[in-house]
Amino acid sequence: MHKSPLVNFVLLACIAAAAYFFTLYLDTRTPPIDIIIQPEAPIEDIEKGQEAPNFTFTDTNGKTHALRDFKGKIIILNFWASWCPPCIKEFPHFITAAKEFENDVVFIGISSDLNTESMNKFLDRLGADIKKQNILIALDEDQNITKNLFQTYRLPETVLIDVNQHMHTKIIGADWDYAALQKQIRTLQKSRDKTP
Amino acid sequence: MRLLAVLLTLLMCFSGLARAEETLDMSAFKNIPLQHQGRLKPLDSFAKLTLKQLSGQTSLKDLSATNWLALNLFDPQSAAQIPVFKISNDTLKKKIGLPDNKTLLSFNELKPALDKTREDLSALLAKDEKNLDPNERELLRLHENAATLTMLMRSFSALLPLNIELPQRYQKQIEGQFTFTELSKIEQQLQEELNTIIATKGRDPAAYSPEELSIAKTAFHIQMLRAGGENNNLLRVIPSTWKDAKEPWLSPWEVLLGGEGSPASAFLLSQWADLAKAYRDADAQSWRIITAEILDETQIQSQHPLNTKKFELERIYTNTAPYLWILAFYGLGFLTAALSIFKPDIISNKIPAFLALSGIMLHTVTLGARIYILARPPVGTLYESVLFVSLICVSAAAITAIHRKNAILLLAGLAAGTGLLLTAPALAPEADSLEVLAAVLNTNFWLTVHVLCITAGYGACILGAGLAHAALFIRGFKNTPVLWLKLQQNIYHLSLIALLLSAAGTALGGIWADQSWGRFWGWDPKENGALLIVLWLLWTQHGRAANKIKPATFTALIAALNIIVALSWFGVNLLSVGLHSYGFTAGLAGGLFAFCAAELILITTLYLAAKKKELSRA
Amino acid sequence: MAQPLRILLLRPLYRLAEADMVFWLMPPLMILLTVGTLAQRWMGLWPAMDMFFGSFIIWAGPIPLPGAYILLGLLSLNLTFKFLLKSEWKWNRAGIILSHLGALILLIGGLLTAMTARESYMLIPEGSETPYIYSYTNRSLVLFEGKTAILNLPFSRIQHADFPPLPFEIKLRRACENCEILKRAETPEYDETAPYQSMAAFMALKDKPLEPQPESNLTGFEFEISGSNADGIYIAFDGMPKPLEITAEGKNYTLIFGKSQHRLPFSIKLEDFVKDSYGGTDMARNYRSDIILKDGDLEWPARIEMNKPLRYKGYTFFQSSFEQGPDFEATILAVVENKGRLMPYIGTGILTLGLLMHLLVTFYNRPKGAKS
């Protein structure tokens, strides 16, 4: 009874002081050096999508191609129709991309137009811009590619296919800007360069 | 276009079937995964939950939940005749003109009443839910359930054969039976022709030639089908294959209208279309093969590997109703334990011990299955915590009873366990749906540490209270002073354990709160409830130590822990303020009040009896 | 002489250290807890908390009843003196002493928190950076002369018309902690000839009951300025669209009223806010903010998510809420400063250890006779 008040008082004071100083220490501590150094953003590892199914189509020049013919190229596979206003809105972006990345990108536009005339009427308006090697437009008359194979019911829909013919991303609708497309294509270029 | 709607009373334009097929093998179909309420589960669980939501039961008279689901998906026209809606409110039935001699009503029977009340609906929805009277609430629920069923019936409306006569020109283009998928290919063409017709002949269909009318009707059908698919996101059976898709799983209509289609989804949906055909043709062999194929294909397409064992387990779990068995074990154990104590010559005390241990084993396995299925501790909801606490009570009682060779402990534990399990169904208003948790509760570490600790504390309290009841009874009506002393000690020890668990649990809860939103103590109702138990225990302990509370009073106060725990555990949920009120409350208040009143009377009676005996002895 | 005095001084302290103190204190504490909890349902969370758990005395009509501060204070005294005067360390008593010490530390922590804790919040839109935190409860008036702030006046002083000397004179006409905005011309006391200025010309403020969340209150006041170039009646309120500009004695003054802000010694930039939902539902699974913390020349990335706060320089940042628009996302972080924040951890540890020891000691020491 004689000793305990002092002992316990000291004990209590020690705990309080320890807690207080530890709090102060925590408050002034700066983060360890290793997390201060910002690591450079790593090149995004590309998740491999599913392999695109092969199909054949006949372009506006009457030439028949298969998707597999374009192995080694980045493919923009666009489903569109001239009667679909958002399709028409985004269409020029693809043409620009096909020009900018002429050596790497092939643009394939599969049209759900009712007939060749209505499709060509729209294409004619674009003029010489689309007369490029890497721009291929085809009419999907019975809509087998569009609906049966790719299950595309909401035009426009666009699939980006990498050099190994794996489907990388799908762009739904026309609500995107050119910079985003550029970025996607560059990522696909990078992943191609990484894998010999 | 709107004018045409008058011409067509179109609810479903699918060709009907002569009969519903019951001979199909549902074993693979049951296991097909879908995403529902934030979790992947087998179709069977989904079917049971949905059926329970509509009808209050998990199977119909001659239709299992899975068979009912298949009927809705593949033969909606027949499904609309199956009585499935339960309306418990007779006044409402009368008010909206429904027959009141039937317990369940079919969609077709209900439809006129729904159409009649549709206009009141927006007014009801605008009201605050609290201000709705029971009639209005029921009406709202009815409309919601009807919407759910409609969604279900339209899940595959893009894949089912349609009963529409095409304009002659198109009959060559599309031959035989056709579905929305084929029809949509001519949609644009029809639309353009219709525009020409409207431009030349105006909007009145009376002026149209039969061919023109047929074109208008077909175009309208397509629009109706599409509109019916809009926002239909109930049956998410298609895994999305696009890596940055908004949702990992999609319903068929979401795939089509949301632009999420892919070669993979085209393949899977074609399988579903084949399945629909097999169902409608009652082709048992194709059905069996295709269900197995869909199961495989879905697993292949899912971006994350599916744990099929989990599905199998969930199916067993939802089909066996293990809690009834556990309840039976505990209940029988309680009865035999009571008999073996008071009439030891009739029943050996090995029987209740055996029953209790069997119950505990089954209970542990069941809770284990729950943990495995949900991948979280079994204490996320009020219902779950009751299941957990009852296990704690009985197993703690069994262990100490064996250790201290005291059958009364087992009796108290079994009584507590049985009582708790009996209240459990009242706490799970819908079927036990194995829910996911809200963000703030979703941390396994804190759930484990804090909630397990607290609920284990509840368990210790309830066990102690049960034992205290028994002790008071023995003190009052039996002349066994040695047993009384022994029980005194057991009760004291249990109250210490209860104090440890609830004090540590409460403080850990504070630390969780400090981690989550920076406040150790916020006087939140649930925190206060837990603190109340701690204070009650502290009060009795210190009163006992300071000799202010005599043994009989101490026992009575520990017995009253039942009331304190009930108030803190369930009562707080009734207040529904603050962050912790995760439970279901309606109807609970009455039960809680009745329980507290009954306990108060019982404990007072036992206490007075014990006191009287003490006085007469002195 | 020394001995009796010491006894005289110590006796009440020994009395305070008795176990029956707890016996007497617990019932009122339990009643307070129950009533206070129930009151939260009817009075709203904050008023009930202030009345029952944040007060010394509760007035039940004319009768004063002890509030949480008095009861907990007595309990703390009891624990303190029990620990200092009546706790002699012995093995079989250690559990009890430790658990009491743990409880005492928890209570001290509570006191420290009540005295030092400050809760505020910060709202950061994606891509932007800010050093400012805002008070949930307090509003204040800031007066700038040119670009330098010359006055920061809390609303509590404005309410009492307690204005310091200023280059122009301010007279309070009305203050409301939670206001309703009315059309000026529709108010009963509308006076066509009065010199209403700026927003006051078409808006008027009216008192309205407080919101359950203090940050949702629309605090404001109406005042009259004289001695400036544009004398008249003005209003100022939370989130007013533009500051008031006043010229007096050839100098330009700007008046801003709103939630009191405080500048952190570092700043935070929001890189990305992510809300994860359970697949196919709107139910949130988790929220998180990826931020860059910038302190002087140093900067480093950090992540704040549900149940995983960021602690730095005495400030703790919690994921509290978010705002979302069509092409706009902002995170809301709760910011807490609390010098007593370690106490609960220490206290809980000691308390649990003590109870566990006591339990073991009790079991070990129980009369062997009762075993069979």
Structural class of chain B: mainly alpha
> Which percent range fits the helix content of chain A?
40-55%
Q: Major sheet of chain A, described briefly?
A: 5 strands, mixed
Strand share of the residues of chain A? 15-25%
Mean pLDDT of chain A: 80
**Which parts of chain A are unreliable, with pLDDT below 50 for 5 consecutive residues or more?**
33-46
Helix tally of chain B equals 26
Order of strands, main sheet of chain A, comes to 5-4-3-6-7
In what order do the strands lie side by side in the largest sheet of chain B? 1-2
Main attributes of the structure:
heterotrimer, B: 618 residues, two-stranded antiparallel sheet, 4% strand, disordered N terminus, C: 372 residues, 7 helices
What is the element layout, followed by pairings?
The complex is a heterotrimer of chains A (196), B (618) and C (372).
Chain A: H1 4-28, H2 33-36, E1 56-58, E2 64-66, E3 74-80, H3 85-100, E4 105-111, H4 116-126, E5 135-139, H5 144-149, E6 157-161, E7 167-172, H6 178-194
Parallel strand pairs in A: 3-4, 4-5
Antiparallel strand pairs in A: 1-2, 3-6, 6-7
Chain B: H1 4-7, H2 27-30, E1 33-36, E2 39-42, H3 43-55, E3 59-60, E4 63-64, H4 65-74, H5 76-79, E5 83-86, H6 90-95, E6 104-106, H7 107-126, H8 134-153, H9 168-173, H10 180-183, H11 187-201, H12 210-229, E7 238-239, E8 249-250, H13 252-257, H14 263-280, H15 284-301, H16 308-320, H17 322-342, H18 350-374, H19 382-404, H20 407-427, H21 444-477, H22 481-517, H23 525-545, H24 551-559, H25 561-575, H26 588-617
Antiparallel strand pairs in B: 1-2, 3-4, 5-6, 7-8
Chain C: H1 2-16, H2 20-43, H3 45-53, E1 57-60, E2 63-66, H4 68-85, H5 91-116, E3 118-125, E4 129-145, E5 148-154, H6 155-159, E6 169-176, E7 179-183, E8 203-207, E9 220-226, E10 232-237, E11 244-248, E12 251-277, E13 284-295, E14 298-305, E15 310-312, E16 315-325, E17 328-337, H7 343-365
Antiparallel strand pairs in C: 1-2, 3-4, 3-17, 4-5, 4-12, 6-9, 7-8, 9-10, 11-12, 12-13, 13-14, 15-16, 16-17
Would you kindly provide a written description of the structure presented here, covering whatever features stand out?
- The complex is a heterotrimer of chains A (196), B (618) and C (372).
- Chain A is α/β, with parallel strands linked by helices.
- Chain A is 40% helix and 18% strand.
- Chain A is built from six helices and seven strands.
- In chain A, the strands form two sheets. In chain A, strands 5-4-3-6-7 form a five-stranded mixed beta sheet, covered by helices on one side.
- Chain B has 26 helices and eight strands.
- Chain C is built from seven helices and 17 strands.
- The mean pLDDT of chain C is 84.
- Chain C has helices at 2-16, 20-43, 45-53, 68-85, 91-116, 155-159, 343-365, and strands at residues 57-60, 63-66, 118-125, 129-145, 148-154, 169-176, 179-183, 203-207, 220-226, 232-237, 244-248, 251-277, 284-295, 298-305, 310-312, 315-325, 328-337.
- The longest helix of chain C is centred in the first third of the chain and has 26 residues, at 91-116.
- At the B-C interface, α22 and α23 of B face α2, α3, α5, β13 and β16 of C.
